[in-house]
Structure formats: C-alpha cells, structure tokens
Amino acid sequence: MHQRIPRSLRFRFFAALGGLLLCAIAALASISAWLIFPALQAEERATVKRELDRVERSFELDQQQLHSQVRDWAHWDDTYRFIQGEYPRYADVNFSQEMFEDMRYQLMAFFTASGDVHFLAGINPVTGDYQTCRAPIDDCSWMTPWVTNMQTAIAENRTDQSSIYPDRPPAIMASSPILRTDKSGTAVGWLFKTRSLDDDWLAFMEVYTGLPITLNLSKETISISDVFSFSGNTVFAERYFPTSSSLSSVSLGVGIELNRTSYLTSLTTFRYVLLWTAGLMIMVIALVLLLLEKIVLKPLRLLTQFTQQVGIDGADAHGLTKRNDEIGLLARTFQEQFACQQQLNAELLKLSTHDALTGLPNRRLYDQRLETAFSDAVSTPSELAVMMLDIDHFKLYNDHYGHQQGDECLQQVAGAFNSIATKFNFLIARTGGEEFSAILPGASPDSAKGIGEQLTRVIDQLQLPHATSPVKPYVTVSVGIATLKDSKSPSPSAIMSTADQALYLAKAAGRHQVVLFTPPKASNTLSAQNTPL
Ligand SMILES: Nc1nc2c(ncn2[C@@H]2O[C@H](COP(=O)(O)OP(=O)(O)OP(=O)(O)O)[C@@H](O)[C@H]2O)c(=O)[nH]1
Q1: Which residue's CA lies nearest to atom 29 of ligand 1?
Q2: How distant, in Å, are the alpha carbons of 115, 157, 507 from that of 188?
Q3: From ligand 1's centre to the CA of 363, what distance in Å?
Q4: Known EC number(s) (predicted)?
Q5: What would the pLDDT profile of 417-466 be if each residue is shown by its tens digit?
Q6: How far apart are CA 477 and CA 59, in angstroms?
Q7: Which of 76, 156, 189, 373 could form a disulfide with 178 if both were Cys (CB 3.0 to 4.6 A apart)?
Q8: What whole-number distance in Å separates Cα of residue 476 and Cα of residue 473?
Q9: Would you say the C-alpha torsion 324, 325, 329, 334 has a positive or negative sign?
Q10: Ramachandran region of residue 294, left (φ > 0), alpha (ψ -120 to 50) or beta?
Q11: pLDDT the model gives residue 243
Q12: Distance CA 360, CA 156 (A)
C-alpha cells in the first residue's frame, strides 16, 4: 500500500540538515582515510628513513676512516722497508695490544708483492690477546678465513678499497698497496686492516649515532634496500648493504629500533580533532534545527492555526499580532484582510438578499424565509399567514410625478412598512416593482388582518399626495392575506398564490382595503372577506 511521505517544512529541514551532516562526516572520514592518515604514515616512514641515512653515513665514515688509516700505514717508508725485510724491529716499535684496541683493529696483514703472507698481527677474538704470526696457523689459525679473503682480493686485483666481509663476525676490511712515502716506484706488497663489526663496534656506533643498532646477515640477495616492521609502540627498520663474500651473495642488514611516540601522539591528537570536529558539527546542526524550530517552524505552525481560527474568540491566544517580526506582520495583514473580506462578504450578502432602492429584504431572501417558516409551521404545527401589499394606481403616480419621485415614494412606503414590521417582529420584503410581501409566523387570521390594517394606515398617515388617484388624493395601498389553512395542498407557492388572489379581490373591490382570503364554500365560488378603509 502506498505510504504517504511527510513533506512538512520540519521534515524537509531535518532531512536536508541530516543529509548535510552525513555528507560532512563522510567527507571527514574520506579525507582522514585517504589523505591525512597516509600523510602521517609517510611522515613516520620519512623520519625512520632519515635515521637510517644517518646510520649509513656513520657506517661509511667508519669505513673511510679505516681505509685512510691503511693508506697512511702503507705509504710510509718504514712499512716499505719492513715488507722488504730491512726493518726487523718495525712490529715491535709500532704495534701493541693498546694500539689495536684504541684503533679498533682486529687484524693487520702484510703481504708480499707475490701475495704471500709477510706478517700478521691481531687480537684473538676468543681470548682477546694480541698475537703476531708469520702464517695463519696454530694459535693464529683464527686469522685463516680473513687471510684467504685478502689473498683472493689481491689475486682479483681488488685492493686499495674498503669492503664489508660477511665472515663471523662480519667485518670491514680495507687494503692499500705498500709504496714509499712519496708514492714513487711500484707496489712492494699489500697492507690489510680489518675491523670486526662485533659488540664493541655496535656499542661504539650506538654512542656515535645515539641509536640502538643491530646487525643481521641475510643469505638472500635483498632487492629492496630498506625493510620496515611496525609493532605497537616501536618500529624496526633495516637497511641492507652488499658484502664481498667469496662463497655466495650475502647482505648485511643494519637495523635500528625507534619509538613511535611522535607518530602515535600525532595520531591520537588527530583522532581527537576528528571526534571534536564531528561532535561540533552535530552540535551546530542540532542547534540550527532547534533555532529553526523555535524561530521559524513553531511560529509558522501557530500562524497556520491562527489563520484557521481567525474571527473566533481566542484565535490569537499566542499574541502573534503583537509580534514585531515577519510573523507578526503576516498575522496582522491576514487579520486585516480577513476583516476586509468579512465586510465585503456581508455587503455582498446584503446586496444579494436586499433591495437596493428601499433596503428591504428582496424576493430571494423572502422566498428562503418563507420556505423555513412554512416548514416550521407544518412540522410544529402552528399558524402561518402571508400578506401581499400593492400601491394603488402607481402607474398613474409615475406618469404624473415622474419615475424619480416614484422611487422616492417607494422608499417612503417601504420605510413605513418596515417600522410596523420591526414593531411586530415580522419580515416584510419588496417582492416586485410596487409590490411588497410579508410573512407572519404564528399569526391567526384576525391578528394578520389587524396587522394588514395597521400597514394600510401607516401609509395613509404618510399623506403622500397622489393627485391622479381615483381612490384618494394621497397614496394608498391594498392588502391581500392568506393563511396556511386556506390551501388544500399547502406549499409556499400555493399560500402566496392564495394571498395574490386576496390582493386581486382587494383591488377589484375598489382598492385601499385589506382582504383576508376565505376558502370557497360548497358552491365552489371564490369569495373574500374584505375591509374597506
Ligand atoms: N418609479 C418606479 N416605478 C416603478 C418601479 N417598479 C415598477 N414601477 C411602476 O409601477 C407601475 C405598476 O403599474 P401597474 O402594474 O399597471 O399597476 P398600478 O398602476 O399600480 O395599478 P394597480 O396596481 O391596479 O392599482 C408601473 O408603471 C411601473 O413602471 C420602480 O422601481 N420605480
């Protein structure tokens, strides 16, 4: 079944503002999801990346330092002489455990031009003792993997550089050809230095960068340089560097762990802002609706009630006409229009029910009243008399005095009739040119006749001159009266027809008299009881 959708102003405002609110909240949610949250996440990633860049620069700096230190040592005449066997006390003079620890060297390896080991010195990663050897055997066997890597680098001509080696522990290895201090001549050998990326190195880097750092060796080749993993309040990020592994490709990941406090605080703040914004929007729209209801919708409802009840007592119970706003103006204008309309209606009603010349009720009103009086008399039942009155020889009056004076005569006759009608409380109307009719509810034949006589008398008393009247030298009237009982089949038209017959008899009998219709006797002849005046 078709259900009627409410279309009131209130419904429309609620629907429109509710829709607006939903759109605004959806827009807010979309902007948050597609713009603001991704921007916050990108900002967090950029911050983490900056920290990784800082760690990478520190790492590279450490490698460059090691390389420049190797070069310093390799391009030194003492070293040049040492590799050629001309400076046997070189190691005793220059090397010590303290020097290795201070410089954070794990191993220093000297190779001849043919790539053979000349001298090895380093700190045993297991015992922590300083050791020197001529070959990586016995106590110095821990040096073997690195010496092998170094000899491979010499064989592949990968010297004079700094690289990362993924041995255990992973290490930075820097090398340089051994030359004179003035760098003249050809290389007489190679010098290698390694720095282990062990716990001490991590501790050093932590102090240097201010970040906790971890190392992770991956056997796979990592294609992306940075890997992020977010968990709760922390983010773990790793940057992978290629290593010089002789066996397979291995990557070294340098990782940092950062606190996400800044991001999470921004997120929480933004969520609060979102919630407050949504809450404020709801509050503003609720306030707008409330004000709308109070300022516009309720007064409009009252105005509607007022327009429906205007003219009735208490219609302006809410004092709308006393308001100083548009509602008050509308209410006052409507009230004035209504009063004007009522006046016009009354005038129209009077025009349609009264005679313009005499001001007496006209035939239309007379017929309506006769219908009502007739119904009342029949239903009660009660008596009812009607009367027809006609000015005698009015044509002669018009002919003699003119139509204008004829009108004035009609007005005076009507006024006189009306004074009697008011006195006895009955209706008298102008139902034709110079013809009048009266309804006398409850009047007996005798009282009706008495009133008829009073009406003719009051016209006589006017003494309106009628020089050409064969009846009297002044204006006179004839009256015909009929009662409800006079008709065999009573009806309003039948009773009026009977009164007309009585008037005819009055005229026929010489005018200026009242004739009460008398029902025909058995002889069926029409007769009347008249009263010549
Ligand atoms: N001045 C004026 N005359 C009117 C008006 N209405 C009707 N008459 C005149 O009233 C006269 C009526 O004449 P009749 O019907 O012949 O009757 P009468 O001369 O009164 O004669 P009886 O009725 O037989 O006594 C006519 O001359 C109409 O012109 C009116 O409004 N003003």
Answers
A1: 395
A2: 10, 14, 172
A3: 17
A4: 2.7.7.65
A5: 999 999 999 999 999 999 999 999 999 999 999 999 999 999 999 999 99
A6: 140
A7: 189
A8: 9
A9: negative
A10: alpha
A11: 82
A12: 140
pLDDT on residue 312: 81
Ligand 1 touching residue 410 (CB < 6 A): yes
Say how far residue 243 (Cα) sits from the centre of its chain: 63
Q: Both tokens of residue 212?
A: 């906790």
CB-ligand 1 contact for 480 (6 Å cutoff): no
Q: Is the Cβ atom of 408 under 6 angstroms away from ligand 1?
A: no
pLDDT tens, position by position, 483-509: 988 777 789 999 999 999 999 999 999
Give the position of tokens 């000297």. Answer: 110
Give the tens place of pLDDT for each residue, 43-84: 999 999 999 999 999 999 999 999 999 999 999 999 999 999
pLDDT of 523 strictly over 70: no
pLDDT of residue 527: 44
DSSP3 helix / strand / coil % (the chain, rounded to 5): 50, 20, 25
Q: Is 434 in the pocket of ligand 1 (CB under 6 A)?
A: yes
The answer to whether the CB of 412 is under 6 A from ligand 1 is no
What ipTM score was computed for the predicted complex, to two decimals? 0.98
Confidence of residue 524 (pLDDT cuts 50, 70, 90): very low
Amino acid 2: pLDDT:
47
Q: 16 in helix, strand or coil?
A: helix
Characterize the bridge pairing of strands 477-483 and 384-391.
antiparallel
Q: What is the pLDDT of residue 432?
A: 93
Is 512 close to ligand 1, i.e. is its CB under 6 Å away? no
Residue 45's identity, in one-letter code, is R
pLDDT at residue 110 greater than cutoff 80: yes
355 ligand 1 Cβ < 6 A: no
Alpha-carbon 524 to chain mean position: 91
Q: Which pLDDT score, from 0 to 100, does residue 14 have? A: 86
Ligand 1 atom nearest residue 433's Cα: 6
Strands ordered across the beta sheet of 117-123: 130-133, 117-123, 107-112, 189-196, 171-177, 162-165
Mean pLDDT of 88-95: 93
Mutate to test the pocket of ligand 1, among 388, 397, 398, 407 (most ligand atoms within 8 A of CB): 398
Answer positive or negative: Cα dihedral of 160, 162, 166, 167. positive
